């Protein structure tokens, strides 16, 4: 469990941050990579990594992936909860806008199949506050994207922290 | 930095990363591609949902042509374009040494200044400024990602050999 703790904590933080509207528009794609970077920092602070040891790529990848997974799980949970409580109109507006976009496309044809599905999803949310289609699609799409960006954050964080460690080592040597 | 000879393994890794970025950019530009409607009707909402996790997709902040918008905002488009441009250069330039951490910080600072400045109302949002600052940070971030993947896969290749 201890090895998952940095990723769990930072993934939870990323999940919370991703549903705050102002923060989402401010930072968009930086939330999960930043969470992965902080997960690496927590991992170093926990002492699991040796004091002067570099972070291994496998560890950075593992923490990045786990941070992304936890971020996806928590952000989906919070999103579903908020949707259940508030039953927002913006999902219906987004579906109508999507329908319009599909019809405006250069190769536009009948959009009946997919838009029926999306309108049913928005109706379920308006009536019951919950839609299985919405939940499943949100979860799997955020799982893919957050894992990818978690890996990116983990790898960049590893490089940054190892560069810093290398500089500290050369300063100590002098 | 400008040594153009590097190992076949590094070239394979860089080509792979470039292909991944091309696929990523294709997803962003999907609205403009001549894809049959039957496929587009399912592909477009799926991609829009995926990219919505990493971008607010707010239309006034996105590039558009004839009322057809990109799937990400101008800033995000800049970040990924910068990464793609650097990946294409990496196929002919060696980029032997990773830039110092300061370079990463300096590449992100203009973007942060732009976000803070227009949110504070100092000027109106400009897609060109957002795109340019995104290109700068995306270019530098890609070098770190490329270096990390090279380190990982070179170890794997050495293990196989």
Strand content of chain A: under 5%
Mean pLDDT of chain B: 86
Task: Give helix % range of chain A.
Answer: over 70%
Number of helices of chain B: 5
β-strand amount of chain B? under 5%
Q: How is the biggest beta sheet of chain A arranged? A: none
Radius of gyration of chain B: 18 Å
Proportion of residues in helical segments of chain B: 55-70%
Low-confidence stretches of chain B: none
Order of helices and strands of chain A: HHHHHHH
Distance between the termini of chain B: 27 Å
Classify the secondary structure makeup of chain B into a structural class: mainly alpha
User: What count of helical segments of chain A does DSSP give?
Assistant: 7
> What characteristic shape of chain A results from the CA principal axes?
elongated
What is Rg of chain A?
20 Å
Report the count of strand segments of chain A.
0
Q: H/E element string of chain B?
A: HHEEHHH
**Backbone shape of chain B:** flat
- The largest sheet of chain B has its strands arranged as 1-2
Largest sheet of chain B: 2 strands, antiparallel
Secondary structure elements and their pairing?
The complex is a heterodimer of chains A (about 170) and B (about 160).
Chain A: H1 5-19, H2 21-27, H3 31-45, H4 57-86, H5 90-104, H6 112-128, H7 132-173
Helix pairs in contact in A: 1-3, 1-4, 3-4, 3-7, 4-7, 5-6
Chain B: H1 8-28, H2 37-52, E1 64-65, E2 68-69, H3 74-89, H4 101-119, H5 127-160
Antiparallel strand pairs in B: 1-2
């Amino acid at each position: 469990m201890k090895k998952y703790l940095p990723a769990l904590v930072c993934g939870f933080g990323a999940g919370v941050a991703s549903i705050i509207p102002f923060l989402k528009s401010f930072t968009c794609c930086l939330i999960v990579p930043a969470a992965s970077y902080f997960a690496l920092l927590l991992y170093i602070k926990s002492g699991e990594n040796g004091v002067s040891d570099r972070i291994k790529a496998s560890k950075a990848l593992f923490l990045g992936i786990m941070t992304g997974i936890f971020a996806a799980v928590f952000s989906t949970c919070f999103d579903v909860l908020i949707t259940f409580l508030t039953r927002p109109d913006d999902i219906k507006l987004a579906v109508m806008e999507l329908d319009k976009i599909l019809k405006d496309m250069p190769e536009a044809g009948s959009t009946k199949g997919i838009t029926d599905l999306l309108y049913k999803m928005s109706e379920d949310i308006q009536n019951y506050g919950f839609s299985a289609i919405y939940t499943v699609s949100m979860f799997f799409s955020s799982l893919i994207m957050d894992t990818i960006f978690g890996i990116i954050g983990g790898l960049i964080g590893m490089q940054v922290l190892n560069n810093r460690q290398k500089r500290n080592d050369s300063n100590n040597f002098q | 930095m400008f040594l153009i000879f590097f190992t076949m393994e590094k070239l394979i890794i860089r080509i792979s990363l470039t292909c991944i970025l091309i696929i990523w950019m294709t997803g962003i530009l999907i609205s403009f591609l001549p894809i049959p409607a039957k496929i587009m009707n399912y592909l477009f909402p799926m991609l829009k949902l995926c990219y919505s996790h990493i971008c607010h997709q707010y239309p006034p902040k996105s590039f558009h042509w004839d009322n057809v918008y990109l799937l990400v905002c101008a800033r995000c488009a800049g970040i990924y374009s910068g990464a793609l441009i650097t990946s294409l250069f990496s196929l002919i330039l060696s980029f032997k040494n990773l830039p110092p951490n300061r370079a990463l910080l300096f590449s992100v600072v203009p973007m942060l200044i732009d976000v803070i400045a227009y949110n504070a109302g100092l000027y109106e949002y400009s897609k060109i400024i957002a795109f340019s600052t995104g290109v700068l940070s995306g270019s530098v971030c890609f070098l770190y990602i490329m270096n990390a993947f090279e380190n990982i896969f070179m170890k794997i290749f050495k293990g196989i050999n």
